[in-house]
């Protein structure tokens, strides 16, 4: 009888001595609106301009363009893009700096062309932004002139009415 009472009594007394945890009891924090998460909303990204020139490929990607052609010719059954990329990466790592030089030269040439294109694009964007600002300011000035002109006409009509009364 002692054994049974001792084990059960020990468990019960330990549980009664533990501090009460509010989270387990079921207290909840009040939420603002049901169904909505409290996670912060993501900011929308600015839309990309389709006319903006694409960035030039690095030397590795210039190499990979040629490597894909040779790899596909040697392995026509391989359809996975990841296999081609992994094989290209291993081949690129195994190349010496002398073997990488022609690809780096092509990449540098493409980068120079890109820089020319981006400068022209930036100038075009700046000029179109200036045009839009000047158009806005013209319309705002015209709106203000129209509004002030209407007020003057109303004042003139009131003066005429006053004169007629005399």
TrEMBL record:
Q: Which Gene3D superfamilies match?
A: High mobility group box domain (1.10.30.10)
Q: Where is this region: Disordered?
A: 1-57, 121-166
| Disulfide bond recorded as keyword | no
Mark out the compositionally biased spans (Acidic residues).
Answer: 142-166
Keyword Nucleus in record: yes
Checking InterPro entries in the record gives: HMG_box_dom, HMG_box_dom_sf, HMGB_plant
SMART domains reported for this sequence: HMG
For bias type Basic and acidic residues, the affected ranges are 12-24
By sequence similarity, the record places it as follows: Belongs to the HMGB family.
**Listed GO cellular component terms?**
chromatin; nucleus
Q: Which organism is it from?
A: Glycine max (Soybean)
At the highest ranks, the source species' classification is: Eukaryota, Viridiplantae, Streptophyta, Embryophyta, Tracheophyta
Q: Which residues bind DNA?
A: 53-122
Gene Ontology biological process terms from the UniProt entry: chromatin organization
Q: Where is the HMG box domain?
A: 53-122
Q: List GO molecular-function terms, semicolon-separated.
A: chromatin binding; DNA binding; structural constituent of chromatin
Keywords of the record: DNA-binding, Nucleus
Please state where this protein is localized: Nucleus
UniProt name for this protein:
HMG box domain-containing protein
């Amino acid at each position: 009888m002692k054994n049974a009472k001792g084990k059960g009594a020990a468990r019960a007394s330990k549980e009664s001595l533990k501090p009460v945890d509010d989270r387990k009891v079921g207290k909840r924090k009040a939420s603002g609106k049901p169904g909505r998460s409290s996670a912060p909303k993501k900011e929308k990204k600015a839309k990309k301009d389709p006319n903006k020139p694409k960035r030039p490929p690095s030397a590795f990607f210039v190499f990979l363009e040629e490597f894909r052609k040779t790899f596909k010719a040697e392995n026509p059954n391989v359809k996975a893009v990841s296999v081609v990329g992994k094989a290209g990466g291993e081949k690129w790592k195994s190349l010496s700096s002398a073997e990488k030089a022609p690809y780096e030269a092509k990449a540098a040439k493409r980068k120079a062309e890109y820089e020319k294109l981006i400068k022209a694009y930036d100038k075009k964007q700046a000029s179109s932004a200036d045009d839009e600002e000047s158009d806005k300011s013209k319309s705002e000035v015209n709106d203000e002139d129209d509004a002030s002109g209407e007020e003057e006409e109303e004042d003139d009509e009131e003066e005429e009415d006053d004169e007629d009364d005399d």
